[in-house]
What does this fold into?
Amino acid sequence: MKRLLICLTLLTTILAAGIFSAAYVRNTNARIQDLCAEIREQVISDTDPSSAITELCTCWQEHCKILSFLENFNSVTAISAEMSRLPALASADPADLIEQIDSISEQCRLLSQRHLPSLHSLL
Amino acid sequence: MLIVFIRSIILYFVITAAIRLMGKRQIGDLQPSELVITMLLSNIATLTVEDISIPMIMGIVPVFTLVSIDVIVSYLSLRSRRIRRTVSGSSKLIISNGKIDQKAMRELRFTTDDLMAALRAQQIFDLADVQFAVAETTGTISVCPKKTAAPPTAKDLGLAPADTDPPVMLISDGEVSTAALNFLGLDMEWLNKVVKADGASIPEIFIMTAENPTKYTIIKKEPRK
It folds into this structure.
């Protein structure tokens, strides 16, 4: 009976942690997607996107720390590498920046999709 | 994490179903669910240890999920015969009253060679000596020989020997087991006296077993060459 209770507690804890982590990944991804859209709009409207880029990088750095416990190391470092190119691109080529932002946005979306229960991620 | 959790649960049931589908002859001495856990845990552990890009939590979550699910399924099996039969299957009679149930053999995909090998493992070499044979849920075969082929028991011979406990290991490689001494209601004083009477000391004893204070066996260590 004691063993059963331990197992039920473990399962509940894992389930709760799983739901929390999925909710966290979903919310942070939504925030990243919003920032990417904002940067894209600012580049198109010829406004300085530096503050949004800084915010995106800070957001990713925080997210990256938690994601390293949940996600394959290679997937996280790949996006981190792409993120690190953003500040330089902001002052260089707007076309490249848009391309880079779209790529980051797509990679983050795919990464978060792996944490959200759906038919695709389960099967 | 949630995905790994759900996938572990799905895989547990899918593989258990697959093992059940394979039948009794595939599973050796384990219950189907035990085999599934053993297989999955070893693979998860290997992957997590080998691939350092996988976070440790992704190895820990499925391990605890699978073990917890197994404990819960075992508990439910204990409470419900129906669940027990679904998870582990049921034993099947393959020889009844000395007659082989060929349909049951076909269902279990047991060949005559498998049957004969299982009988030989139980020291039965003639099919005519078997009264009943049962294929257990673990895939092993239990055999009940005919009374004419079974060795006579004390009851058959009209004897009534007293029931005795098996001998207990008191000294193993020079180390005394106080638990064994307590079990027999003996003490160190008795042990020292007995060992001394045998012309040895406790560290010189390789094995000492005893059933009671008067019936014991002492084997001394051989001198090292």
DSSP finds eight helices and eight strands in chain B. Strands of chain B lie at 92-96, 99-100, 130-135, 141-145, 168-172, 175-176, 205-212, 215-220.
